[in-house]
Amino acid sequence: MKRAMLIGPIGCGKTTLMQRLKHQQIKYDKTQAIEFSTNFIDTPGEYMEHHNIMRYLRTTAVDADIVVLLQSATDRRLVYPAGFCSMLTKPTLGLVTKIDQAGDGDIEYFRKLLLSAGVKKVIPISAIDGTNINEVRTALEEN
């Protein structure tokens, strides 16, 4: 698996996804700082929510093979501006998370927002029940 940098707002499921992909017990663990491991770079949600520190994501992405943008199906905010991925020099993947809690039309709505941000592919997932996690693994191995 390539080294994936996980980006997204607070509570979108970055750490939970990482735990699922690493076959770890799923437990809440608030990421306080950028955490580096062999296959992942887990970023705090504050980096997406506070524009004055968002620039550090671009610098940190240098250490990644792929950047994964996560968007919760339960959070209607526009998190990623159109063309967001143009500031990154790495391949990108978009994930709509928490699809087990999605309402009618939510998955398609967020898929379009992630494509507008510039990701090449979007996968709807649930890290809790494992929906499409193998597809994510495959995508991370291909890039």
Rg measurement, Å? 14 Å
Task: Give the N-terminus to C-terminus distance in angstroms.
Answer: 9 Å
Write down the secondary-structure element order.
EHEEHHEEHEH
Largest sheet: 6 strands, mixed
CATH architecture: 3-Layer(aba) Sandwich
Spatial strand arrangement across the major sheet: 2-3-1-4-5-6
The fold-level CATH name is: Rossmann fold
> What is the tally of beta strands?
6
What is the overall pLDDT average?
91
* Fraction of residues in H or I helices: 25-40%
Shape: globular
CATH class designation:
Alpha Beta
Organism: Limosilactobacillus panis
Family: Belongs to the EutP/PduV family.
Protein name: EutP/PduV family microcompartment system protein
InterPro entries: EutP_PduV, P-loop_NTPase
Provide a descriptive summary of the structure in words.
The chain has 143 residues and is α/β, with parallel strands linked by helices. The protein has one domain: 3-Layer(aba) Sandwich (Rossmann fold), CATH 3.40.50.300. Helix content is 28%, strand content 17%. The protein has helices at residues 14-21, 46-49, 55-60, 106-117, 133-142, and strands spanning 4-7, 35-36, 40-42, 66-72, 92-97, 122-124. The protein has a six-stranded mixed sheet with strand order 2-3-1-4-5-6, with helices on both faces. Helix 4 (106-117) links the parallel strand 5 and strand 6 (122-124). The chain starts with a strand and ends with a helix. The mean pLDDT is 91. InterPro entries: EutP_PduV, P-loop_NTPase. It comes from Limosilactobacillus panis.
